[in-house]
């Protein structure tokens, strides 16, 4: 029987060999593989998919933002709906969000073009240094997670200090910056509505610097020859205050709700919004950062663009804890205070191991 030590060494060498190609999962598909490498084999328990009963109780809320900037009854309705979705689901979709279909399509197309361009051009952006202005890689937690995910990623911080034009990819860089500006406007509106739903002043969450930083990640999930043996993205919760996701028509995103994996179906023109760990922390668990995942698929590629309101990869010594105005004898703090820097260090060290990044902060 092969020793555990030898198995670990073999896995380590496989991971290094994959990383050294600098062509990601797309490179494997381009090479014509018919079975997935062992490093992508997910533990069987993580692949289970209990399907929810068919009912509206297991349908992700879709919220129409039209009228959200008006001081009318429409705004109060929106505040109630968004607060309810953030509290019960942690996930919802928004329509009439103010970003045109053309912009959404150009952003998706740009990410696809980046990942499908000449591998030698892409390699120039390949890096595992989170401090790089622009990073293209496959699996940020490649060397720490139980199994690699079937996806590649291009990303950068677009706020507060976006990369210089010369540091951006030619095929999509300009679009990444333009799209981010639109997402930032939407994010500010969402944080206003969430603040009001908590009974706080309109700008409360913005004044806590929740909208200061934006990380854009453009994901590429190639078609997988054995989608039942791996995942596009393992179960995890987000290390953000809020995440705005643009997904294409392929599908595969699922949310863990009442112990069931619930599909988040693609809705043309809609954006998916979800609560991150940091918003759950400061709302003392009122808004929930729920676990979610992406299934691998034989069809593809699947393209998604995730924008995270978080300074997760940047030094940030600001202390965050449950908002004092939300606490009482009946609602004592559930989490200790932390800095984003401390939280991010823990989150990165554990990778997508199936546990919440908030567990170690619980009181």
From TrEMBL:
<keyword id="KW-0408">Iron</keyword>
<dbReference type="GO" id="GO:0005634">
    <property type="term" value="C:nucleus"/>
</dbReference>
<dbReference type="InterPro" id="IPR005123">
    <property type="entry name" value="Oxoglu/Fe-dep_dioxygenase_dom"/>
</dbReference>
<protein>
    <recommendedName>
        <fullName>Fe2OG dioxygenase domain-containing protein</fullName>
    </recommendedName>
</protein>
<dbReference type="GO" id="GO:0051213">
    <property type="term" value="F:dioxygenase activity"/>
</dbReference>
<dbReference type="InterPro" id="IPR026992">
    <property type="entry name" value="DIOX_N"/>
</dbReference>
<dbReference type="GO" id="GO:0005829">
    <property type="term" value="C:cytosol"/>
</dbReference>
<dbReference type="GO" id="GO:0046872">
    <property type="term" value="F:metal ion binding"/>
</dbReference>
<dbReference type="Pfam" id="PF03171">
    <property type="entry name" value="2OG-FeII_Oxy"/>
</dbReference>
<feature type="domain" description="Fe2OG dioxygenase">
    <location>
        <begin position="210"/>
        <end position="311"/>
    </location>
</feature>
<dbReference type="Pfam" id="PF14226">
    <property type="entry name" value="DIOX_N"/>
</dbReference>
<keyword id="KW-0479">Metal-binding</keyword>
<dbReference type="InterPro" id="IPR044861">
    <property type="entry name" value="IPNS-like_FE2OG_OXY"/>
</dbReference>
<feature type="region of interest" description="Disordered">
    <location>
        <begin position="48"/>
        <end position="71"/>
    </location>
</feature>
<dbReference type="GO" id="GO:0016629">
    <property type="term" value="F:12-oxophytodienoate reductase activity"/>
</dbReference>
<comment type="similarity">
    <text>Belongs to the iron/ascorbate-dependent oxidoreductase family.</text>
</comment>
<dbReference type="InterPro" id="IPR027443">
    <property type="entry name" value="IPNS-like_sf"/>
</dbReference>
<keyword id="KW-0560">Oxidoreductase</keyword>
<feature type="compositionally biased region" description="Polar residues">
    <location>
        <begin position="48"/>
        <end position="60"/>
    </location>
</feature>
<dbReference type="GO" id="GO:0009620">
    <property type="term" value="P:response to fungus"/>
</dbReference>
<dbReference type="GO" id="GO:0009753">
    <property type="term" value="P:response to jasmonic acid"/>
</dbReference>
């Amino acid at each position: 029987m092969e020793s555990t030590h030898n198995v670990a060494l073999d896995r380590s060498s496989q991971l290094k060999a994959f990383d050294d190609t600098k062509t990601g999962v797309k490179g494997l598909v381009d090479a014509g593989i018919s079975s997935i490498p062992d490093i992508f084999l997910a533990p069987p328990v993580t692949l289970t998919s209990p399907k929810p009963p068919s009912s509206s109780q297991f349908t992700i809320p879709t919220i129409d933002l039209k009228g959200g900037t008006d001081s009318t009854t429409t705004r109060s309705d929106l505040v109630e709906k968004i607060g309810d979705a953030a509290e019960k689901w942690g996930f919802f979709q928004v329509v009439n969000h103010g970003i045109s279909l053309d912009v959404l399509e150009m952003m998706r197309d740009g990410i696809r073009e980046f990942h499908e361009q000449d591998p030698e051009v892409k390699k120039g952006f390949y890096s595992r240094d989170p401090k790089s202005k622009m990073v293209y890689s496959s699996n940020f937690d490649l060397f720490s997670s139980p199994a690699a995910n079937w996806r590649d990623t291009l990303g950068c911080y677009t706020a507060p200090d976006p990369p210089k034009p010369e540091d951006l990819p030619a095929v999509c860089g300009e679009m990444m910056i333009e799209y981010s500006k639109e997402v930032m406007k939407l994010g500010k509106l969402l944080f206003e509505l969430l603040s009001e739903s908590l009974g706080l002043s309109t700008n409360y969450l913005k004044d806590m610097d929740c909208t200061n930083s934006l990380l854009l990640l453009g994901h590429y999930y190639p078609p997988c020859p054995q989608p039942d043996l791996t995942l596009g993205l393992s179960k995890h919760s987000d290390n953000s205050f809020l995440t705005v996701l643009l997904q294409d028509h392929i599908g595969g995103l699922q949310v863990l709700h009442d112990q069931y994996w619930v599909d988040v179906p693609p809705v043309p023109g809609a954006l998916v919004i979800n609560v991150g760990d940091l918003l759950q922390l400061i709302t003392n668990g009122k808004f929930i950062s729920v676990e979610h995942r992406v299934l691998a698929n034989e069809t593809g590629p699947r393209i998604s663009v995730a924008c995270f309101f978080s300074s997760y990869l940047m030094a940030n010594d600001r202390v965050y804890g449950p908002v004092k105005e939300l606490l009482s004898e009946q609602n004592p703090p559930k989490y200790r205070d932390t800095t984003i820097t401390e939280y991010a260090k823990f989150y990165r060290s554990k990778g997508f191991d199936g546990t919440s990044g908030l567990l170690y902060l619980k009181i």
